[in-house]
Design brief:
globular; 89 residues; alpha+beta; iron; binds iron/sulfur cluster; 3Fe-4S; two-stranded antiparallel sheet; electron transfer activity; disordered C terminus; 3 helices
Length: 89
């Protein structure tokens, strides 16, 4: 899967659909600093996006067997446009 690349660590987050999670632990294996299991064996996010290895998180999201994880990337076009405007001024 190829998705949009976040411009910075604050531009993305991960959503966990607890109803879809079967507790396989694959996300924990790929990104142990970002995911863990809670006391119901459901995946939960423990990591901060600023400190996370986005590549590992993306791999974990892609490897989830049930599609319970979603990598959410903010639309940064407005910010990018503003940055370009500032350069021209
Ligand atoms: S890989 Fe998917 S199904 Fe497995 S624990 Fe993580 S979120 Fe749940």
């Amino acid at each position: 899967m190829t998705g949009p690349a976040p411009a910075s660590a604050s531009d993305w987050s991960v959503a966990v659909d607890r109803d879809q999670c079967i507790g396989s632990g694959i996300c924990v294996v790929y990104a142990p600093d970002f995911f863990t299991h809670d006391d119901e064996a459901k995946a939960t996010v423990i990591g901060e996006t600023g400190d996370a290895d986005l590549s590992a998180v993306r791999t974990a999201v892609e490897a989830c067997p049930t599609g319970a994880l979603a990598l959410l990337v903010a639309d940064t076009k407005a910010a990018d446009t503003n940055a370009a405007d500032r350069k021209e001024a």
